[in-house]
Records
---
Amino acid sequence: MSADARKPVNQAGTANSKLAALNTWVAEVAALTRPDTIHWCDGSDAENDALIAQMLADGTLLKLNEKTHPDSWLHRSHPDDVARVEHLTFVCTTAQDDAGPNNHWMAPAEAHAKVDALFDGCMAGRTLYVIPYCMGPIDSPLSRCGVEITDSPYVVANMRIMTRMGAAALARIEKEGSFVRGLHSIGELDPDRRLIMHFPEELTIKSYGSGYGGNALLGKKCHALRIASHQARNEGWLAEHMLILGIENPQGETHYIAAAFPSACGKTNLAMLIPPEGYRNAGWKVWTVGDDICWMRPGADGRLYAINPEAGFFGVAPGTSAKSNPNALATIQHDTIFTNVGLTADDQPWWEGLGNGQQPATDWRGNPYDPEKGPAAHPNSRFTVSAKQCPSYSPMAEDPQGVPISAIVFGGRRPSLVPLVFEARDWTHGVLIGAAMGSETTAAATGAVGVMRRDPMAMKPFCGYNFADYFGHWLSFDTSGAKLPKIFHVNWFRKGDDGSFLWPGFGDNLRVLEWMIGRVKGEAHAVETPIGHLPTGADLNLDGIDLSDEAEAKLFGFEREGWQAEFASIGDYLDGYGPRMPQALKDEQRRIVAALEKG
Ligand code: SAT
Ligand code: MN
């Protein structure tokens, strides 16, 4: 290692003061982590080819069948490093109350000291990669830039797909001067030496000891949600865990919908929905803008405009099939990185629910597949792929102005009580519906699966500040000039007494979205109840769908007693945040409790 190799270089080649802060930070990080080499990523094909070749040589990647999956790779993670680690994820604000009961908190000085001790010398023998990236279209005023420093070439390759990474992002940073700092090392991949630290007041992230997506691709959950939610509050916009899709009706009119569901609840499937045959024949189309994150801000006309800050999909592989999500399957046929899926004997990727008639030979750990020892693919195995490869990718996704949002949808996995769909009476009621969201936990985070927990706006693991303040921020958008979207709640996961799902879901969810657009346009009918406006079965187009009496009753019904218990629990939940909880939200909860009592 030469002394020169350690010296950070200014890629722009000038002593530009706006990059001085970046150069200084890279130098400080290099002094702490002591890498052998520093590489500034330009995002070029040549750079990517060289990284892939290096990872094939050292076993980080395996080449998949070139005939069936050209330029696609399999990565097997450390078996203890397969999901986000919420218990090791901290929001480090000066005042603990600013992080709120919804986050694990540590004082900034203590957090820096703890995590810097792990970073000390951790890149010896490794290359330090500097990844300038832009979240959102390069030329969009809604976009924000960051720089991730990492010692993982796998992270570089994934960030190249998931963000606008390289020279263009660096040029924007040079112009703007500001960027989010993200320091990452895979460390020893030891779960006892793993910390994901956020310093929203410093626009800084430090992540150590994990190579898994949500912990390591810092542009995603760490920047685009935890840090961005904090920035958004200060700057008057919203950073949300939402997909964005466009629905084009036979008249050629497109309405955009943003929808929040917890991780692994079908956001990618909904974002890439294929209309049922009757709708297709009539000329309906669905356009994918994003499948995970949505940044929105009011435009000059008072409507909310949204961009997808990401450039790719980091989707859950298991369950993805030609039936459940043909668009996703088409997207991942080439130039895709698979993580922790199984393999067929001829090196094709395989997962439970793929249903293509093939059989796995090797499991996600690289052992011969043995059904006694668990699934072939890890339940949280993933694909990383450019959004541009998706057949339904919306051309509007690259529009710097974003797309106008007509409806916001909240949803979760609720096997009982919650009907298929209902509509909020107004914005405040909608914010309460989002704040009260509950869902069963999934494999996207470590911990028990299938446990019911409150996950407001699907942001429980991702809001970078106190939820009470966050709800207040949401309420603040209801100004006199605002033309806000309507808010809805959906539940695709309602179960019957025998435990089976009552609603077919997938493409048929368009029937529910069509009703929502009808409501937005003032055309569709609904029944008023204490929990909001509900359609009857007759208000939806259910042509070709055969619902049992039980399904019809549970999907479109309103169960007063169950909702009374639910609203008592929502009241307790809001009270848990103490005096910071906005009074308007508490009043709304009380209004509904009173309406439920009236009978
Ligand atoms: O791993 S991620 O956090 O990026 C995916 C998810 O859990 O939504
Ligand atoms: Mn997500």
---
Amino acid sequence: MSYQVCLLSGDGIGPEITSVVQDIIAAAGVTIEWIPCEAGLSAFEKHGDPLPQETLDNIRRTKIALKGPLATASGTGFRSVNVSLRKELQLYANYRPAKSLKGVPAPFKDVDLIVVRENTEGLYSGLEHTVIPGVVESLRVITETGSRRIAKFAFDTARSLGRKRVTCIHKANILKLSDGLFLDTCNKVAKDYPDIEYDDCIVDAAAMKMVLNPHQFDVLVMENLFGDILSDLASGLVGGLGVTPSGNLGTDAAVFEAVHGTAPDIAGKNLANPTALLLSATMMLKHMGETEAGKKIEASLFAVLEEGKTLTGDLQGSASTTEFGEAIIAKLDTVS
Ligand code: NAD
């Protein structure tokens, strides 16, 4: 079977890591027709728009995209492509697993948790205004519909992966209306999943518990800003943004991406670690139904990391991006 997938290779190290990931997927036997799509600073400079309509149309058509990091210009006139993509395509669920990898230095071992973040509401609704000069307001929008669909996503994900527990993270003790609605809605959805344990935790306490003992969590579901912060915290528990994948899922499309930046300090030098993008790509393959290929690539990657002979500089190795990719390809036939 052949697939069409949009490729937003991104800025900085983006093209180097996407190219390695494309090679590994091809070597694993999955035929993909990649549709190159423009986005980010280069698209802004060329078209005056960091997210051209053509890119959105292509993703709506293929329903799937792999995205490298995009440089974001500071200041006004340049909307965040990541936020725009999520809103335009209604990618309402951000799925961020944090799993310990042998061979990757990290503060904890055997961490295996999943952060599910609501991706379209909260403070990211983009509703900000100046009340009077010197006073601004940002609206934090929480809806019952948005809360219900993200809660259902978290429980469905837990069920499909055989996970035991979902924890709703909130601040309903202070934000009684907005987080009260989020918590109430999660409580109601939980009743439809009697096979999954359910509890809730206030966000500040959850942050402390995650750094003291992350093993006590399984699947965590939360609104947008809390998810932004705690998903990065979760990545830190297992070695950082360079080794953690991310998927943005909606009813009509899915965009899989590395969450680290463009690494301008090492861009163009063949030094970047493609692990985060590769794990996002394996998540994408499983989403497409290419589960076996996804698992095979993961097994090869884990074997290379554990062996520790061919690692990139960020993992204290001396291999180039392409050498790391070649080592993974060489392992494909030896893993089951
Ligand atoms: P960054 O993640 O690009 O870099 C931080 C540090 O991590 C650097 O030392 C870099 O070399 C290293 N690093 C990052 N990814 C790596 C990889 N795959 N392999 C090896 N080392 C890696 O963060 P930054 O410097 O704050 O941001 C640079 C640019 O990236 C900015 O324009 C920012 O807006 C953008 N950015 C984009 C995204 C995204 O598109 N998802 C996310 C974060 C930052």
